[in-house]
Amino acid sequence: MKTYGMALDLRDDSAAIAEYKACHRAVWPDVIAGLRGLGITKMKIFLGGNRLFMYLETPDDFEPGRDFAKYMETGRAKEWDKLMRTFQQRTPAAKQGEWWADMEEVFDIDWFDEG
Description:
34% of the residues lie in helices and 24% in strands. It is of the alpha+beta class. The protein has one domain (2-91): Dimeric alpha+beta barrel (Alpha-Beta Plaits).
């Protein structure tokens, strides 16, 4: 299993943030099916202020660049992405051409034995 942390900002607009949250309480079934079809076993998005943090768990053979590109080939995924981008903006840490900025894992409690 691989894990990923990614960051993205929402526009600093309380109405847009509320609408973004509402959209994620009613995600289109095609979007969920497409993400699960990639092998994503867990996806969580957290919000603090206007900063989003996304946590993913995937199979070992998952490659974000390749697999998300494949996912984006479907019409509903493109439509969802277009809608979500109306609420979002890149973080200062995002690399050129990157929307969700990759984050470096710096701590995992499981790295340390209890014994």
